[in-house]
Design goal:
803 residues; inorganic pyrophosphatase (n-terminal core); Diaminopimelate Epimerase, Chain A, domain 1; five-stranded parallel sheet; five-stranded mixed sheet
Length: 803
């Protein structure tokens, strides 16, 4: 048995859904698996499925449905006519850079007199600031168009108005209760905005402004929209799906120097680019500039018209990204130490660990704290806020990442009086506050978590789309699933539960053996599976285990060959596993036992030995104790049920019955490790042919002196004394022979008698058959162990019901 690391959620596929999937498959000529996935994701009608699969620019919404769009368009058109000086005011993350880039494309086409401004993350922080507005006024700027920012800038926009600057806000973040008094605000999340899709990224809102000003959707700019939308983790549904799909098509054919240079340094083949390449290859490099230096380097790359200049910028971004990775590693290490110390202090004070992770470090680079927060969530699964602190002023700037069920924006709103500034959405946010407010901030966030979250919310969840068998895990099926691309937030790559499979091999791979590669079989087919970051499970998976995998079906391309493989996100073994080391030449040595246990670092484990002499050997293995409880079968019987996940059977059990009772005594048993040589002291039960050979010998040579007869007959029949003694006892019970005056004599034959008529024969045969399982092949023995555990559980359940 091996527990999954997350809680699996697979909703049953009912008859009505099955009927809808069948109808979709028939109407749209879709593979059944694709049709079932469409139904599972809510596209269960022909029209909605068609739009999802094939929707293009014709399916984009009217941009003038956005509140504030008409006023924004009129103001920008006036700026064109009057040749006003206009400034784009952007943000330093990838969405902000993409939005700024798209707006430069637009304003260049409109012929505006413009420039752009992105604040420095460390020196200025997020959003509009008065110093930047004052500088804009000083050079004659009369109109500022914000992108991916501005919705919370109430004071700053009021100040701009005093300076004679009109502000058009385009943003997608959660609006505050009080909105700024801007000339126009375009944000689909405004309470009274009737726009049908609320999930646009900042660059998506900028695209809608471009569509309104140009009179048609500028499809040639969707590559930039795809970059910002994917990077900002926006849901790839509705308009976002259309824009990203079109954007990926643009990227595959792009001649833009910036994108080509970015792909080259990232090792990305533009001809086959997918959303994952953008998310993990392009976006981190674009983000790196704003995190460590200034985002204008990224805007310069995306707006470049010269290939050499673009290549130089891309090279610089790649170096910054590598530097960013090193900084993240250092801060993650420091943050983990800080958190574990905080948990230990809470334990010593008799208190639970805080429900929300709030950590502030002096000198931590505020440009990477969001990444650090994400990494800590992966490890601890708690809402996490990481802040960089100024040692002189005590001012803390940070980023937050959340878990399902904990709304960060709502939580920060509850802490409004403790914060200088904050913004974001349910899953991610940023904030600024002072050091003296950190304890109250942490306490308030923790209280909200305890109030909002249930016990189940603290367990990571994996939502599974469908259960499938090996017959579905083929290259053809993976190619069919490509109909659902692009994948991302809100339209994840299908999570499949693969069952009915057997583990045929497993090995660790990669640097420091961090990853796990599995070979699985089922229905006469073989498949490779890869599980990143799970190399430590190599010794926890037994050959031949019936394993269940959750993950994604993918394609492995190597040396021009393509084959299906399964990318595992979680796994489990639902039965007790057998680790069979009976064939190891030194399996019964104390050193081998010690080495095995220390390599696995097993918790809740025990060593079971045949007798007390083995305890002494274990406790002095290589001069070191094994570090686990060592007990005999009698010890275990006296204790009753004990908590034991891993049972090490060292030395051959006296009988199968003893091992069965031991298994029944272990509560929470996950695995049995056998360390004995099955060839030693193996029980030998004579065959009918051997009984016949002995009887014929007795017929020829009786009478024979009783004393020492077993040894003499064993020499003549190439047998053993104990086996001959047993057979003679059977013959005596069956009245084939008898003893008279110290001699063994044949008895008169009174009729045909079967060997099974002898009680000694029946008893020995029963014991032999029961104990033979201890030397049986691994599969037979594994099934027997599972059956003994199930029988024990059934017995316990019956006892509870009957009490």
């Amino acid at each position: 048995m091996l527990q999954s690391k997350t809680r699996w959620r697979l909703a049953p596929f009912d008859l009505e859904e099955e009927a809808r999937a069948t109808g979709l498959a028939r109407s749209l000529a879709l593979p059944p698996l694709v049709a079932r996935l469409l139904v599972r994701r809510g596209y269960d009608r022909v029209e909605s499925a068609k739009r999802f699969l094939n929707g293009g620019v014709e399916c984009l919404h009217d941009p003038f449905l956005l509140k504030g769009m008409r006023e924004a368009v009129e103001r920008i058109q006036a700026a064109v006519r009057q040749d006003e000086r206009v400034r784009i005011y952007g943000d330093y993350d990838c969405d902000g850079v993409s939005s700024t880039t798209l707006m430069t494309y637009l304003f260049t086409r409109l012929g505006l007199n413009f420039d752009y401004y992105i604040p420095h993350r460390t020196l200025e922080g997020y959003g509009l600031n008065k110093a930047a507005l004052r500088a804009a006024a000083d050079i004659g700027v009369t109109l500022i168009v914000t992108v991916d920012t501005g919705i919370s800038a109430v004071e700053e926009i009021a100040y701009a108005k005093e300076l004679g600057i009109d502000i058009v806000v385009t943003d997608h973040h959660e609006p505050p209760y009080v909105l700024p008094n801007a000339y126009a605000i375009i944000n689909p999340k405004q309470e009274d905005c009737g726009y049908p899709f609320k999930g646009l990224a900042g660059v998506g809102v900028a695209f809608k402004l471009a569509q309104a000003l140009l009179g048609e959707p500028p499809a040639e700019w969707t590559d930039v929209v795809a970059l910002g939308t994917i990077a900002d983790l926006m849901p790839l549904i509705d308009e976002n799906r259309i824009l990203v799909k079109l954007g990926l098509e643009q990227l595959r054919l792009t001649d833009k120097p910036g994108f080509r240079a970015l792909a080259e340094v990232g090792g990305i083949d533009l001809a086959t680019i997918q959303s994952t390449n953008v998310a993990f290859g392009m976006a981190p490099r674009i983000n790196a500039a704003g995190r460590l230096e200034h985002a204008k380097l990224s805007v310069g790359l995306l707006t470049a018209t010269d290939h050499d200049a673009a290549a130089a910028d891309a090279f610089q971004l790649d170096l910054l990204n590598k530097q960013r990775q090193q900084i993240v590693d250092v801060i993650v290490s420091e943050a983990q130490e800080m958190w574990e110390a905080k948990c230990k202090a809470a334990e010593e004070a008799g208190k639970p660990a805080p429900s929300v992770i709030v950590l502030a470090g002096e000198g931590w680079n505020v440009g990477v704290v969001g990444i650090v927060a994400s990494k800590l969530i992966e490890r601890y699964y708690k809402p996490t806020i990481i802040l960089g602190m100024d040692g002189e002023t005590g001012k803390c700037k940070g980023s937050a990442r959340s878990i399902e069920g904990y709304d960060l924006h709502a939580a920060l709103t509850e802490c409004d009086e403790l914060l200088d500034h904050y913004g974001g959405h349910q899953a991610a946010a940023g904030m600024t506050l002072y050091k003296e407010h950190l304890p109250a901030f942490e306490e308030r966030l923790g209280m909200l978590a305890d109030s909002w979250l249930t016990e189940e919310d603290w367990i990571p969840k994996t939502s599974i789309d469908l259960s499938c068998k090996m017959e579905d895990a083929t290259l053809r099926v993976r190619e069919q699933l490509a109909l659902l691309e692009p994948f991302g937030i809100g339209n994840e790559a299908p999570k499949l539960l693969l069952t009915g499979i057997t583990l045929t091999d497993r090995k660790s791979m990669g640097k420091e053996s961090k990853h796990l590669k599995l070979a699985i079989s089922g229905q006469g087919k073989m498949l490779d599976a890869v599980c990143f970051g799970s190399g430590h499970l190599t010794e926890r998976l037994a050959h031949g285990a019936a394993i269940e995998l959750v993950g994604e079906l993918s394609v492995n391309e190597w040396n021009g060959q393509r084959k299906a493989q399964f990318m595992v996100s979680d796994l489990r073994v639902p039965h007790i596993q057998l680790f069979d080391r009976r064939a190891d030449s030194d399996c019964e040595s104390a050193g081998a036992l010690l080495k095995l246990i220390q390599a696995g670092r097993y918790a809740e484990a025990a060593v079971l030995v045949p007798g007390s002499a083995w305890i002494d050997a274990a406790e002095s293995a290589d001069g070191r104790p094994v570090g686990l409880p060592v007990m005999t079968y009698d010890d275990l019987a006296r204790q009753g049920r004990v908590r034991c996940a891993h049972l090490f059977v060292w030395g051959k059990p006296g009988s199968a019955d003893k091992l069965s009772r031991a298994i029944a005594s272990c509560e929470g048993l996950e695995a049995v490790h056998l360390l004995y040589d099955e060839r030693k002291a193996k029980s030998i039960f004579p065959t009918r042919e051997q009984f016949g050979q002995l009887y014929q010998l007795l017929r020829r040579e009786c009478p024979l002196p009783e004393e020492g007869i077993s040894k003499q007959l064993a020499l003549k029949l190439n047998g053993t004394d104990d086996v001959i003694t047993f057979m003679l006892k059977v013959f005596t019970e069956l009245e084939f022979i008898h003893t008279d005056q110290g001699y063994i004599r044949l008895s008169p034959v009174t009729g045909k008698k079967e060997l099974s008529h002898s009680a000694a024969y029946r008893d020995a045969q029963r014991k032999f058959e029961a104990n033979e399982v201890l030397s049986a092949p691994a599969k037979v023995l594994a099934d027997w162990i599972v059956s003994q555990a199930q029988h024990s559980l059934l017995h316990l359940n019956e006892g509870v019901v009957g009490s």
